[in-house]
């Protein structure tokens, strides 16, 4: 068993597929598949079960995944123990984020960073879409980004924290709680525009579950999603933490099985400045969480 195998295992668990994990890891899918098969033979357990087009951790897989995360955190802790932190020079880091995650940056991450490193200036560049965000990274206009994972190939990724995604519906929508994925069949839903990368993520999610919701409305302005739900236009899949403040005006239900998504920091592969390294190290210390798959 190697640390690389454990990293591969966690990537497959986060993506729910070999294809997505292979793209993030920048390896070919057959190599990833062979690595997992070798690990299963060594442990004499089945780690994943195929559900539709996706992969879901088995009971044994959940335990191994959680232990793998602890092992990798321990390895990083050892590195931190012997790492002598260099003084941070004053400088500016341009951090890109979509509208929702820009709020996460400014309210949760940056205040503590500014207190710890007052000479480090972080400029949050709000991007209208994931496509614009990754284009900004590729062009060098921004140094780093906070995004919903997975990210396209060719980037270095640091997972930060996990969030539950829930179904947010008009108040009097009749659905069980939690909601089965089959309950989404023909359910009126608010979705991103048809040609966007975010819409493609939703379509893949629905295809994996084998359901076809009714498209009630399309908009890429995620800030408008909850008001549109309140107005009765349809339901939306949204972060539980962001939906709960509106619970008096909408119905918030967990999915069964639960839907977990991960937010992370993403940067291009190449030389890294001391300022960006400081931001990454601080983000990792503050934000990395163990993800429980249930």
Automatic annotation (TrEMBL):
- Give the matching Pfam families: HTH_1, LysR_substrate
The HTH lysR-type domain, residue ranges: 1-58
Per UniProt, which keywords does this protein have? DNA-binding, Transcription, Transcription regulation
List the GO molecular function terms: DNA binding; DNA-binding transcription factor activity
Q: Does the keyword Mitochondrion apply?
A: no
- Keyword Glycosyltransferase among record annotations: no
Xref: InterPro entries:
LysR_HTH_N, LysR_subst-bd, WH-like_DNA-bd_sf, WH_DNA-bd_sf
Gene Ontology CC entries for this record: protein-DNA complex
Q: Which domain of life is it from?
A: Bacteria
The family classification in the record reads: Belongs to the LysR transcriptional regulatory family.
PANTHER family on file:
HTH-TYPE TRANSCRIPTIONAL REGULATOR CYNR, TRANSCRIPTIONAL DUAL REGULATOR HCAR-RELATED
- Report the protein name in the record: LysR family transcriptional regulator
Q: Which species is this UniProt entry from?
A: Embleya hyalina
Q: What is the lineage of its organism?
A: Bacteria, Bacillati, Actinomycetota, Actinomycetes, Kitasatosporales
């Amino acid at each position: 068993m190697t640390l690389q195998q454990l990293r591969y295992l966690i990537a497959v668990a986060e993506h729910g597929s070999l294809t997505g994990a292979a793209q993030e890891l920048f390896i070919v899918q057959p190599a990833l598949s062979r690595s997992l098969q070798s690990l299963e033979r060594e442990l004499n357990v089945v780690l994943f079960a195929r559900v539709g087009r996706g992969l879901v951790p088995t009971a044994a897989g959940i335990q191994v995944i959680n232990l793998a995360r602890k092992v990798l955190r321990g390895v990083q802790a050892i590195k931190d123990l012997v790492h002598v932190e260099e003084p941070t020079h004053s400088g500016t880091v341009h951090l890109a984020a979509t509208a929702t995650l820009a709020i996460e940056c400014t309210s949760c991450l940056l205040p503590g960073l500014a207190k710890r490193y007052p000479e480090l200036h972080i400029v949050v560049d709000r991007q209208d879409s994931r496509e614009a965000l990754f284009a900004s990274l590729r062009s060098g206009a921004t140094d780093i980004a906070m995004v919903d994972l997975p990210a396209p190939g060719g980037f270095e990724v640091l997972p930060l924290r996990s969030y539950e995604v829930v179904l947010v519906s008009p108040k009097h929508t009749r659905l069980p709680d939690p909601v089965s994925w089959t309950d989404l069949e023909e359910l009126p839903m608010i979705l991103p525009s048809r040609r966007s990368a975010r819409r493609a993520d939703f379509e893949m999610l629905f295809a994996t579950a084998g359901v076809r919701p009714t498209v009630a409305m399309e908009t890429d302005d995620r800030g408008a999603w909850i008001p549109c739900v309140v107005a009765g236009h349809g339901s939306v899949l949204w972060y539980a933490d962001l939906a709960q403040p509106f619970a008096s005006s909408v119905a918030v239900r967990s999915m069964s099985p639960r839907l977990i998504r991960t937010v992370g920091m993403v940067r291009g592969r190449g030389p890294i400045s001391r300022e960006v390294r400081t931001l990454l190290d601080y983000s990792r210390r503050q934000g990395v969480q163990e993800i429980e798959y249930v």
